[in-house]
Every structure is written in C-alpha cells, then in structure tokens.
C-alpha cells in the first residue's frame, strides 16, 4: 500500500507546472508545493521525533497546506488548531496530544502563550527558509508504513472534553481512491474548498487533489457572509466542484444568492453534515440543471463518508432524502437496542460501519475508543472491527439507507422520546420558512425553535399542528435574521442554547 507522500510525488512528477493550490495571495504548482513541503519537513524533523503529533496553529492557506504535508515528510501526523478557538480549548487539545512541536505564525504567538505550551515552536516562515535534507527525509521514509497516522481531528466529547480522532495513511488513501473513482475527478477539476482544515470535509478536498492533480482553490471564510461576493469568487476562479456542508449551500440559496449569479462551471456538488432541505436542494438543481448532486453521509471516525446517493429526481418537501449505498470496501449495517442486526425495511436502528478506512480510534483515550469501535460477530461467524456511529437510520423499501437523527439529538419531553431533527424537517416544509433550529430549553422544559424566514408564528403553529403531535410542537418561536454556523459549517446549536440561557432570545409576536 502507498503512503500519501507517494501519491503526492506521483502527481508532482506528472503535473509539475499545474496549479496545486491557490488562495487570495497567489498560487503554487505541484513542484512548488512538493519542494516547500520537503523544506518544512526537514525543519520539523529536526524539532520532533518520528511518529509524534505536530500541531499547526494557523488559518488555512497555501503555506499551511505545505506545512501539513511537511509534517508528514517529518514522519509525524498533523493536527490543525484553528486560531479562532478559545485558548482554553486549544489548551485541552495540547494536553491530550502532548506534542513536542507547534507550528504557527508570529501573530498567533500571544494565543499560544496563553495556552501555556512549553514545547518547541517553529514559525511557518522559518520552516519555509530551511534547506531540504534528502538524506534525513530518506531515512524517515524508509521507516514509514501506510499504517502510520496521517492526521488527527478533534470533535466535541459527550463529557465536555474534546476527542482526537486519528486516521492512518491507508485509511485516507483507500477512501480517496474510491471517492475519486466513483465521481470521476481528474487533473482538470478545480475544487472550491469551503471547510476549514481541521474539519474532515477538507480531507476530501485536499487528498482528491493530491491523488488526481486537481487544483485546490481555498475560499476565504469571510466570503460566506456575503453570497454575492462568494458567487463572484466561484465564477471568477472557474470552480468545477463544491464539496460543502449543507448549511454552506443553503446559506447561498436561502439568501437568494442564486438570483444574483449562477456558478455555471460547477459540474458536481457533493454535500454532507446535515439533512439537506428539499426546497433548498430544488433551488440549486433549478439553477444548475446539468450539475450532478450527491448526498454524502458518514462521521469523521470512518474517514469522511461511508455512503453516497446520486440525486436523479426531484424531491418534494415531505420526502426524505436517502443517504444511499456504501462506498466500495465498506459494509454498513443497523443494530437494534439489543445489538442485533436489522435487515427488515423501515425499522430504525443505530448505523454501524465496518471494512476499509475506519479511524484508529481516539488518541490516548482507550476507554472511549473501546465504547465506539467494537468487535462485532456477524451471523456468518466472522468477527470484524466496526464503528457505532450514534446515528439512527433505517433501510427503505427501495433498498437505500435513510438517516433519521442522532441519538444525542433525541430528547424526552412530556413523556415522549422526540427527535429534534424531525421537528426541524417539519418546520422547513412551511411556506415562508427557510431554515430552523430546534432545541429543548431545559430550564423551562419546553421546546424552542429558531427560524429564518418571513412566516408568522400563527401560520407556523397552524402548519405544525397539521404535521406533528401536540407534544412535538415548539412552545416558543424565535424569528432570527441569520442562522449562524459553527466553524465546521453546521448550524450553531450552542449559539441558540446560549441565547435562551442568558434570556436574550425575543419571542416573535403573532
């Protein structure tokens, strides 16, 4: 099996003068990024031992991408830390990783000092001035295996402590191979990168380019607050592919961005992270009728995605969008509450995944790893390692898999177990309502819904009474002017929860 660096060097040799990555500041060819990565790798290898984590505290950019690959050349695995994170959160990440090396920029030094980090620090500009040492890098490569860790990504933990998911070269390489083959990526593609580099959606962007020679076009985060500027950027940069979170796409369509300008060069849009509202999907498909749309599903722990569904028909607002069928090399199955496999249609169970590309687990957290990554005995007698996602789903009569919510989005209210996403799905079918976020106000033991759109509360309640039982209708409705996203491009539930806790939410009058 190959390491990621072998794919990089093949692409560098095949397309040396083609654009590898570009941002607002300029571009780098494959030969340039390969050369800079080896220079940085030499700098990092002198400051930390092989196999150790190296934290990169910086916003995404061309140079940061070279630093990520440089960490890999040093025989280590990288963990991105977004400077927008609070110092306390970064401190927790550093505590878990215990890295010998943090790579950063001068402007982020005060933040790093606030975390109390006492290890080695290497500035990006210093690493870029290092001369590559082929002998040193060669010795590291001789020891490298495809089972070595490639990257770590931190997610929130149920205990309040972040969990570091670590993924190997083999896991990433296997998935990206199937991903690029399935959707026909080539060196002519230009991928518009929406996701931050510490979010696993970016893994598809980055390594699809590394494997095929496509160009990675980094989209500044600031553009997502202005759909016209964002659409201008997509058109001017001639983007061919969007691999985005659902909320990033709906931000454009719900704010009427597609009436301003259509990114006509885009030939495929792949989305994930949340359930895509049928109304917003219809707006995108109407604007780009020749574009391929794909619904992707899968958590970080299985390396990006395990299933996909090519959208070939129009979906009505009452329809559910399938998450589809497994990628090659994967087996997806459902378990009931007693740990028995579910085969009959329409019966809900926990979605579990086995086969290629499972993460190695949670870094330095064997207890949590053991809970979620289990050895499962199938009816044929085989015993395989699998990941239990915590997501609920069911097989449709059409043989496709359908997502039906998270275990941790399930609440008990008025004696009933309720999926908050079911309420949101009903809200988003109401005319004049674009997006919604429903949470349980634990202080009042009431359901509260925040919504974006022009619908009046009286209309919303009337429609909700037609769709849902009384105990699932939100007690309070809050009209908002925007639906904030967290840094991963998903609806920021914690923002609305905080508004309620601080008494800053204002009920919309009928």
TrEMBL record:
<protein>
    <submittedName>
        <fullName>Amino acid adenylation domain-containing protein</fullName>
    </submittedName>
</protein>
<dbReference type="Pfam" id="PF00501">
    <property type="entry name" value="AMP-binding"/>
</dbReference>
<dbReference type="InterPro" id="IPR042099">
    <property type="entry name" value="ANL_N_sf"/>
</dbReference>
<dbReference type="InterPro" id="IPR045851">
    <property type="entry name" value="AMP-bd_C_sf"/>
</dbReference>
<dbReference type="InterPro" id="IPR000873">
    <property type="entry name" value="AMP-dep_synth/lig_dom"/>
</dbReference>
<dbReference type="GO" id="GO:0031177">
    <property type="term" value="F:phosphopantetheine binding"/>
</dbReference>
<dbReference type="InterPro" id="IPR010071">
    <property type="entry name" value="AA_adenyl_dom"/>
</dbReference>
<dbReference type="GO" id="GO:0005737">
    <property type="term" value="C:cytoplasm"/>
</dbReference>
<dbReference type="GO" id="GO:0043041">
    <property type="term" value="P:amino acid activation for nonribosomal peptide biosynthetic process"/>
</dbReference>
<dbReference type="GO" id="GO:0044550">
    <property type="term" value="P:secondary metabolite biosynthetic process"/>
</dbReference>
<feature type="domain" description="AMP-dependent synthetase/ligase">
    <location>
        <begin position="9"/>
        <end position="363"/>
    </location>
</feature>
């Amino acid at each position: 099996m190959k390491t990621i660096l072998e794919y990089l060097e093949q692409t560098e040799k095949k397309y040396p003068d083609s654009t590898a990555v570009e941002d607002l500041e300029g571009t780098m060819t494959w030969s340039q990024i390969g050369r800079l990565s080896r220079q940085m790798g030499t700098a990092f290898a002198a400051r930390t031992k092989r196999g150790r984590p190296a934290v990169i505290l910086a916003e995404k950019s061309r140079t940061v991408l070279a630093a990520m690959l440089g960490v890999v050349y040093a025989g280590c695995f990288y963990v991105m830390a977004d400077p927008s994170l609070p110092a306390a959160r970064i401190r927790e990440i550093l505590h878990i990783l215990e890295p010998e090396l943090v790579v950063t920029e001068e402007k982020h030094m005060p933040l790093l000092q606030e975390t109390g980090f006492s290890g080695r620090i290497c500035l990006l500009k210093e690493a870029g001035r290092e001369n590559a040492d082929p002998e040193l890098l060669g010795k590291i490569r001789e020891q490298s295996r495809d089972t070595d860790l490639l990257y770590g990504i931190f997610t929130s933990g149920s205990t309040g402590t972040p969990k570091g998911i670590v993924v190997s070269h083999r896991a990433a390489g296997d998935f990206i191979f199937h991903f690029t083959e399935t959707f026909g990526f080539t060196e002519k593609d230009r991928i518009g990168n929406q996701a931050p580099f510490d979010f696993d959606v970016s893994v598809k962007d980055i390594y699809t380019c590394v494997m095929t020679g496509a160009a990675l076009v980094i989209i500044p985060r600031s553009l997502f607050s202005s759909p016209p500027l964002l659409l201008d950027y997509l058109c001017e940069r001639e983007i061919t592919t969007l691999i985005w979170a659902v909320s990033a796409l709906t931000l454009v369509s719900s704010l009427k961005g597609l009436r301003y300008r259509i990114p006509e060069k885009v030939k495929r849009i792949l989305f994930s992270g949340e359930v895509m509202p049928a109304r917003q999907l219809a707006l995108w498909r109407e604007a780009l009728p020749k574009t391929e749309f794909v619904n992707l599903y899968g958590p970080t722990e299985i390396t990006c995605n395990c299933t996909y569904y090519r959208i070939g028909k129009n979906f009505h607002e009452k329809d559910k969008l399938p998450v589809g069928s497994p990628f090659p090399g994967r087996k997806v199955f459902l378990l009931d509450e007693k740990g028995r496999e579910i085969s009959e249609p329409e019966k809900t169970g926990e979605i579990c995944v086995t086969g290629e590309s499972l993460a190695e687990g949670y870094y330095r957290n064997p207890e949590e790893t053991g809970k979620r990554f289990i050895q499962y005995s199938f009816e044929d007698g085989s015993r395989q390692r699998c990941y239990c996602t915590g997501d609920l789903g069911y097989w449709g009569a059409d043989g496709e898999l359908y997502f039906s919510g998270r275990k941790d989005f399930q609440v008990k209210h008025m004696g009933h177990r309720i999926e908050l996403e079911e309420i949101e799905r009903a809200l988003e079918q109401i005319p004049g309502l674009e997006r919604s976020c429903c949470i349980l106000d634990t202080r009042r033991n009431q359901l509260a819904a925040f919504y974006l759109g022009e619908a009046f509360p009286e209309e919303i309640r009337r429609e909700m009474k037609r769709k849902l039982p009384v105990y699932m209708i939100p007690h309070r409705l809050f009209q908002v002017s925007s639906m904030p996203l967290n840094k991963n491009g998903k609806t920021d539930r914690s923002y609305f929860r905080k508004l309620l806790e601080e008494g800053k939410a204002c009920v919309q009058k009928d």
